[in-house]
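Late entry, evening session. Most of the bench is empty. Finally got around to the prediction I had been postponing all week. Sequence below, unchanged from the version circulated by S.P.
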Amino acid sequence: MPKSRVRSKAVYTPPPRSAKAKVSPPWLLPTMLASLIIGLVWIVVFYVSQEKWPIGAFGPANLVIGFAFLVFGVVLSTRWH
């Protein structure tokens, strides 16, 4: 009886690594920190001034503006390497 051929498995070669390490753009960190700080200060000023500042005409919408700054800062923080 003839012997069956043995299949040779292909040798595993891992994909090449990228030579560059990911680096954040230089504007990202200052923009992220500024956005987080502005959002926090905006909300604190709104509560401390008894809802008269930063923009009195907006009323409770000032909270939305403050949280928008905070969310923008958090989104930027996910892109920081």
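Two things to note before I forget:
The longest helix spans residues 28-48.
The radius of gyration is 27 Å.
Will write this up properly tomorrow.
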